[in-house]
């Protein structure tokens, strides 16, 4: 009977989904808001053994909405700081994968875009499914402004920006049909971006002669500012734009995606204090109007929380009253999936103590502890996600990409959303077991860790890892090794209070350490699609190119499954004549020189030197071939292959080595084993890459890089050079 009920529920749900048009999606992600910042969580237990939340800011609209929606108690931002978290949501990649590795927010001054043009983003995926996409508010993953010469402006105070030119890179280049907002933070004492709104890819005020020079403290008189700019009115201005967006959507036949990202509750640090608070928004008082759940005044920051609550209430009001053009007789809310969440934990509270702002969790924004990462998450879709029910699924905002793709039956390519898991069944309550897939989190500013500290969590188990994995060359880091500082079972220790772990947890610590290194180094978390092509390297990735080693470069590997496999061809990657390294292989990477995809196409390929490709096992050579400029083998995509005179059978349980000879400056480049910010190569899931190797005079030698790498750094990585085909 229980099975029959589940089957009938699934059948009804599938029928409902197929009958309904694609849902509109409204995602409101506010800034720096903790779980304790909303009375929607008052009385809730964030973990089964944690104390209930007893102290919150009163948020009437969110509280009312929570009685209709699903309430998630274990949702996480993609990072503990804003830029990395937003990057993670928009790309479906973990927050540490971008070039921003020494901290989780873009530094003050001009920055290159964090999202590369070659990456498919969440809004681009939605566009491909017919959605009209709009972003209103704070973008904060980097924009490129034109300096008048068609290249990015670089002056710290943006004095070289040509305001009459369109952006070289911004939201409309990454999947948003429309954008209205600002590049990032607007703290007058810290941030130097012009105080001018951007609409789509254009500045809304362009007359430099009439701009006002504003700023605070060391920036006083240095910030280019629209004469009508009013820091207190950012929120109301955004809300008016959102109102226009929804009214326009009520007249269009396409489904819409609204990404509403206000600057509040971020501090402002300006002449009048830490926060810039409007007197009112949507006709309702804000300044001085916020209250704690005991009725006492809650303060200026809470006023900004209230500002967002009122704005969210207005969004719901419009969705309930505006007609749905795709479903006559119904309002937009009848087929709109609505999410309210935050980009990271609260910006107030204690860094290393339990804080009410984080719902009684340890830490705050910029902490690798739960208080910096766990965020409010309310989800509603009429007939699908509703009822005021608690959902304890552990997931992150990184997972929205794959989940929305599943909802729309959109197949993800292997290059897309590589760290994003589909959690739709867990949201629906249909999953057979709790979600224990590994999720990596990033960034902790200040002691006791280095800034690029990470955590990994599977189920309720979590370890915190000292710095030196995302940025192995960072000062006081561990040069690519996983050094565990803390272990917590959050079911037993939700406040992360236990500083040491018992002997009984050693196995868990070791397992999580291995998992973190594997997921981090191979470059993706989610299982990728098994391809029809029977070749080891399916995509060469974006890693930097090098041609500075003399000897043999390659990797150790083994079979992933229990079936033997026959190798039929050996081969190598063939660089394009126009492919160039972005920096010397032994030079430190920086935020201004980024990795990119290699050039496609057959024209321009060809070998300059001879290369021996050798397959061996336990020191015994199994097969080898030689490719030369005169006999380069057959080109298949970006790889050259030569059929073996006699195929060779590989067996489970054995370790194999594949190498290729190389000579420094022989003009035949290969991809460096390790990535800085680019996509890693994709290998066939039938094989597990164990480590990169470099042989000099037939002996293992360290692979030269820009720091003294530990052996862990080279695990699960391969140089894109030698490869093979199999059957």
What best-fitting shape do the alpha-carbon axes yield? Answer: globular
Average pLDDT: 94
Summed up, the domain count is 3
CATH topology of the largest domain: Alkaline Phosphatase, subunit A
Q: Which class best fits the helix and strand makeup?
A: alpha+beta
**CATH-derived architecture of the largest domain:** 3-Layer(aba) Sandwich
List keywords for this structure.
alpha+beta, 6-stranded antiparallel beta sheet, 727 residues, 10-stranded mixed beta sheet, Jelly Rolls, Arylsulfatase, C-terminal domain, 36 strands, Alkaline Phosphatase, subunit A, globular
Describe this entry's structure for a reader.
- This protein is of the alpha+beta class and 727 residues long.
- It has three domains: 24-428, Alkaline Phosphatase, subunit A; 439-522, Arylsulfatase, C-terminal domain (2-Layer Sandwich); 537-726, Jelly Rolls (Sandwich).
- It is built from ten helices and 36 strands.
- Strands 7-6-5-4-10-1-13-16-2-17 form a ten-stranded mixed sheet, with helices on both faces. Strands 28-27-31-25-34-35 form a six-stranded antiparallel sheet, with no helix packed on it. A four-stranded antiparallel sheet has the order 19-20-21-22, covered by helices on one side.
- Strand 6 and strand 7 form a beta hairpin.
- Helix 5 packs parallel to helix 6.
- The longest helix is centred in the middle third of the chain and has 22 residues, at 300-321.
- The radius of gyration is 27 Å and the shape is globular.
- The protein starts with a helix and ends with a strand.
- Residues 1-18 have low confidence and may be disordered.
């Amino acid at each position: 009977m229980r099975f029959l009920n589940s089957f009938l529920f699934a059948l009804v749900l599938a029928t409902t989904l197929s009958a309904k048009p694609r849902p509109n999606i409204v995602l409101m992600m506010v800034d720096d808001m903790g779980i304790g910042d909303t009375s929607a969580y008052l009385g809730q237990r964030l973990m089964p053994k944690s104390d209930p939340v007893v102290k919150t800011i009163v948020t009437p609209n969110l509280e009312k909405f929570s009685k209709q929606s699903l309430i998630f108690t274990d949702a996480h931002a993609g990072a503990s700081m804003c830029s990395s978290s937003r990057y993670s949501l928009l790309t479906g990649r973990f927050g540490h994968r971008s070039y921003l590795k020494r901290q989780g927010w873009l530094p003050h001054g001009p920055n290159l875009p964090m999202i590369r043009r070659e990456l498919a983003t969440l809004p681009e995926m939605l566009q491909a499914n017919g959605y009209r996409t709009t972003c209103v508010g704070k973008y904060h993953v980097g924009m490129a402004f034109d300096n008048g010469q068609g290249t990015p402006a670089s002056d710290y105070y943006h004095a070289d920006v040509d305001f009459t030119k369109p952006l070289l890179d911004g939201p409309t280049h990454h999947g948003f049909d429309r954008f209205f907002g600002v590049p990032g933070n607007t703290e007058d004492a810290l941030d130097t971006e012009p105080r001018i709104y951007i609409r789509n890819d254009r500045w809304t005020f362009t007359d430099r002669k009439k701009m006002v020079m504003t700023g605070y403290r060391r920036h006083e008189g240095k910030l280019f500012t629209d004469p009508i700019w009013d820091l207190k009115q950012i929120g109301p201005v955004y809300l008016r734009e959102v109102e226009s967006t929804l009214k326009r959507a009520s007249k269009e036949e396409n489904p819409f995606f609204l990404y509403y990202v206000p600057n509040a509750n971020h501090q402002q640090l300006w002449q009048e204090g830490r926060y810039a608070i409007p007197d009112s928004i949507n006709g309702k008082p804000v300044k001085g109007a916020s209250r704690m759940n005991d009725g006492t005044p809650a303060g200026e920051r809470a006023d900004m929380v209230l500002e967002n609550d009122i704005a969210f209430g207005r969004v719901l009001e419009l969705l309930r009253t505006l007609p749905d053009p795709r479903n006559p007789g119904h309002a937009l809310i009848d087929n709109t999936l609505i999410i309210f969440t935050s980009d990271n934990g609260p910006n107030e509270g204690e860094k290393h103590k339990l804080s009410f702002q984080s719902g009684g969790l340890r830490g705050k924004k910029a902490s690798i502890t739960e208080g910096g990462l766990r965020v409010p998450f309310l989800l509603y879709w009429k007939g699908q996600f509703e009822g005021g029910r608690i959902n304890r699924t552990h997931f992150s905002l990184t997972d929205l990409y794959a989940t929305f793709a599943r909802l729309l039956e959109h197949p993800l390519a292997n290059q897309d959303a590589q760290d994003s898991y589909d959690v739709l069944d867990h949201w629906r309550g249909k999953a057979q077991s709790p979600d224990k897939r590994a999720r990596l989190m990033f960034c902790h500013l200040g002691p006791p860790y280095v800034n690029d500290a990470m955590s990994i969590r599977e189920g309720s188990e979590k370890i915190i890892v000292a710095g030196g994995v995302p940025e192995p060359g960072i000062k006081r880091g561990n040069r690519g090794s996983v050094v565990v500082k803390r272990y917590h079972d959050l079911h037993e220790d939700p406040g992360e209070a236990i500083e040491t772990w018992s002997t009984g947890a050693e196995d868990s610590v070791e397992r999580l350490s291995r998992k973190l290194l594997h997921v981090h180094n191979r470059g993706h978390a989610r299982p990728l699609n098994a391809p029809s092509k029977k070749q080891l390297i399916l995509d060469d990735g974006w890693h930097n190119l090098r041609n500075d080693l003399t000897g043999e470069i390659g990797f150790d590997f083994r079979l992933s499954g229990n079936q033997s496999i026959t190798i039929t061809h050996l081969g190598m990657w063939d660089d394009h004549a126009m492919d160039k390294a972005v920096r010397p292989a032994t030079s430190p990477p920086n935020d201004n020189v980024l990795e990119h995809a290699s050039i496609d196409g057959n024209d321009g390929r060809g070998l300059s030197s001879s290369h021996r490709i050798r397959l061996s096992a336990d020191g015994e050579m199994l097969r080898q071939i030689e490719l030369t400029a005169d006999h380069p083998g057959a080109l298949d995509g970006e790889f050259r292959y030569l059929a073996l005179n006699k195929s060779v059978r590989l067996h489970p349980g054995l370790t194999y080595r594949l190498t290729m000879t190389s000579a420094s400056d022989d003009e035949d480049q290969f991809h460096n084993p390790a990535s800085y910010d680019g996509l890693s190569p994709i290998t066939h899931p039938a094989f597990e890459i164990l480590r990169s190797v470099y042989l000099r005079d037939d002996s293992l030698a360290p692979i030269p890089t820009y720091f003294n790498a530990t052996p862990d750094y080279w695990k699960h990585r391969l140089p894109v050079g030698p490869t093979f085909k199999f059957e």
